[in-house]
């Protein structure tokens, strides 16, 4: 009996220590603040799962496992995966140009390839974050009477309207910001166009293409935001913090619908299934394993990891692609490939991405395939605290 009591005490102490190591970062979140869903995945299991703060402050709805968050820019690596899957099926090539899909575009569209879009090497200015481009887009949209009328009564701008005017804004440029392939600059524009191109190449709406990733994994609470998205009681409300003596948080929403660069809605348990799949694919294992090997020389230059194990007959084609690229894709000095940032921690490769949605939800995840460990943090406001990768690995790695 004493031995059993001792074992129980030891296990309980370990659990409390593990919980403290992760949850310390979220100690300030409570019933009066927005919050986060936090999870650690190990060998396909959600071994740590905690929920902090409120999904909706007005109605005091706490965040739980059903809470749906907008993943924002985390969507990009899903889009990249879909592009590479269509290439594997022979429906497109990452060496296709923008001109192929938008023949009415300027001549320089011929120089922008799909792999440039995937790895932010296109030179297309960011329609959301580049001030000049954003102003031009707003001017274009503001000239459409029915759009203004709908905005006044709170209706959203359809994704096709946004896409059309972003494309028109790009076509009006005399040249890209830099020669495609010779530099890197984070751009939502590339992924917005990429989603449209995937529709053109496959003949399937992007939202349905995405479901081909979600359904096999049982991600039943994951979808793309659209005009037809139905409000559910467990959808999180986005908030932004404001400096006011009376209110700490303000509800934030967006009337802009986009896909490809953002727009995936998901829950912590659903996203854990996706992370588990990336580390231990349940099907098409060769494709998914090569999707996560961009630190090797060939795939380090972006979008070509699936060619590492191909035969020599592809060699000439690969050489042509690589010769058109002058620099490894790096964003803020960090290597980037297939919609993921790549870093080294404890000598092992870690893949990660952050997401800030237009409605102010902030998400973050990373995964370490060699350790079979992943970390997920989904928040309904811009929250920049999280345990370090080292802390999680020290706690959960074998």
From TrEMBL:
Pfam families named among the record's database cross-references: Beta-lactamase
Domain Beta-lactamase-related intervals: 32-382
Highest taxon above the source species: Bacteria
Record key words, sorted: Signal
Keyword Signal: yes
Keyword Secreted part of the UniProt annotation: no
SUPFAM superfamilies referenced in this protein's UniProt entry, alphabetically: beta-lactamase/transpeptidase-like (SSF56601)
InterPro entries membership: AmpC-like, Beta-lactam-related, Beta-lactam/transpept-like
Natural source organism: Colwellia hornerae
Official protein name in the record: Beta-lactamase family protein
Signal peptide: 1-20
